[in-house]
Write a structure and sequence with these properties.
Radius of gyration: 31 Å
Helix content: 40-55%
Largest sheet: 6 strands, mixed
Strand order of the largest sheet: 7-8-10-12-11-9
Number of strands: 25
Structural class: alpha/beta
Shape: globular
Length: 815
Amino acid sequence: MPEQQQWTITATEQPPEWFIQAVKQYTPASSGLYAAQLLWQRGIKDRQQLTAFINHKAYQPASPFEFGQEMHLAIARLRQAYNTKEKIAIWGDFDADGITSTSVLWDGLGQFFAQNTQLVYYIPNRLKESHGLNNQGIDNLAKEGCKLIVTCDTGSTNIEEIIYAKQLGIDVIVTDHHTLPAERPPVAAIINPRYFPKEHQLFNLSGVAVGYKLVEALYQSLPNVAKYPLEDLLDLVAVGLIADLVQLSGDCRYLAQMGIQRLQEDFKQPAAARRRPGVGRLLELCQKSGDRPTDISFGLGPRINAVSRIQGDASFCVELLTSRDVKRCNELAEVTELANARRKSLQKDVQAQVAQKLTQLDLSTTSVIVLEDAQWPAGVLGLVAGQVAQETGRPTILLSTEGAGEAGEQGSRGAGGAGGAGGEITSLSSNSELRTQNSELILARGSARSVNSVDLYQLVKEQAHLLHRFGGHPFAAGLSLLVENIPLFTAAINQQLRQSLGSTTLTPTVQADLTVTVADLGKELFLELKLLEPCGMGNPVPKLLIQNCWFENSWHRNQQDWQGKKVQYIKAEFDIRDDSTRNAFPGLWWGHYKDELPIGRCDCIAELDYNTFKKRYEIRLIAVRSSANSALNTQLSLTPFILDLRNQEHSATQHSGLIIEDCPTNWDDLRMWLRRCLASSRSTSGLENQQQLAIAWSKPNHQPPNQIWLTLVGIAKYLSRTNQLVTRGQLLEKIGISDQTLLVGIKALKYLGFTVQRQDRSLQFTWNPNDSVENLADEAVARFLAAVREEQFQQQYFAEVPLSTIVAIASYDSK
């Protein structure tokens, strides 16, 4: 269960008037004050910085030859391959940054080397191999006659594999952005921005951007060879940059701005005329238009990542992103969408299992959450770990022993990959020696995610003696270890973090950037905040605090997969109001039901967005809590608001408000009526002239559960014999139970040989007695009788519960 969140507001320093006026030049329809505050607090404090940040045309990108000697060495080796017609292999990676990196090199180097004959690519299988080079893959490339490997988004620390390739007569050019080795590896060249100081404009480049810089240098060195402009690669660069969650500053921001523009321009074309029909089809499937960074982070990125998480082999994604065959791309896009639907389903299942395990942990004494299960699919553990980390405020490590019996066989090829961390994998010598001695090692592999500025990579690295392999970066890591080491690892990593934190306590934190009102929301504010896009690490999407507000017209629905076959997730939609305007503003809350929205006044933190599918501006709810003193205010206002007419004949007929005559069986039923009445009051006269809610049910006169069961069986037999149809409403009225309990009864009838079929809005019962399921029938009937007894108990409770208790529970629900 998530802990109580801590809300913080970013400290704001009022920017000087000249800066506000400078920002206003870019926001003629609004004051520009909010954007100016955000830009100022994020370190944009002079005119030159401001201009370059907002207008990519004013930014001067770095030359690819800023990489110095290493870039010159790489180009010299590529020119040698070009002149001697050598065969080249691109060695990519299976996450979104790795797939787009491979695609950029495939398209870019493909201008100089014939694809499929002189140029090939290799993507490791996520479920069988790790990130990085491996000897078996190198062997296969050697057999194909490759003389040069160009890595992308990987390879910096694969010293042993690079030496092995060299022994087979294969040179290696590394393009990467992950951890640097202690010494320069024996490569033809290594292009890695980690060699730059942190303030350098190229320091934050992701793998795809590094690959682009290599292609850019080759375009400059062989200027008359390429048929297509270098800028055609920028849309793929933007996808990889934003999906990999790198800091979008310097050249990263410039390339992302340029790439999103190219992505949008291409999507506007008819499908047959698109440069990238596969990308266009993916955008259509996720109902995006490619003009927002969130179209990548919530649309394209997760879908590309899903393929390797579910299938292991993501090689076809390169074809999806680069092919111009519309029919083929449509087929591949649909396979990708199916993988994403399956990923959502698996993620949902694992989330539920992790939530159950969390109830058995004492979070007050837990600094790092470490959980393991034999059935968890490794491909989705990073996603679930990230969610748990956000909800609990604690670094989270999830481990799976699924397929552990194969760990020994796969160890030499890198079992226990980074699980989605996108990082280098470091093999630990002490345990890798054990690996060669015992092919039956039982390994757990998994993913780790961090929050609250805890350097997870360093934290995990400190326990290297207990690990088999690990890799990653400060906020995400992957690891594998012997199952028998998990208790030691858990205790050690918790002790280490506790010692480093001292008296500091870990709590889930939500940070707001600006305080606004409902009247502020809309197109003008959206366009003003859009100046900060593309957002990412170091420049997050602005979080807006809206105080003393309330929700109306809330509803929720289950979102199904793209073929409408299976529920994947839910979302609540609502209107938000406050006292600043008479107009409501729409919003949604992903992963939540409408009943989770509080009654009465509250505060919320949200992001302002534009829904291209519905063509409207809306907020996306991030967090919500009761306003100060709202529980007291709600209780005071609900006392006269709820009229108690229980067990009083004919009294309800004189009441002009909402009336509940059916005795509820749970608090959720009652809360639904309270929300409906509050919403009706707000939409008319406001809270000061509330419409009363009359609770007017009578004390129930229950039949014994056994008699109710016999009645249900008798009705079913009669309907089967006469071939008559019945509605669920008619059954409920006749038997006197709730709809949910009726469903339990119908399941029990099926074990007695009844077949229940739906015809329009009616049910048809057919009886074919079957003695072979008698034991199961007894269990099913027992469940029905238990459900009836529970329902009757609840109704008896609600018939007698004091009004003060009802008011208190309703008030508590607003917290």
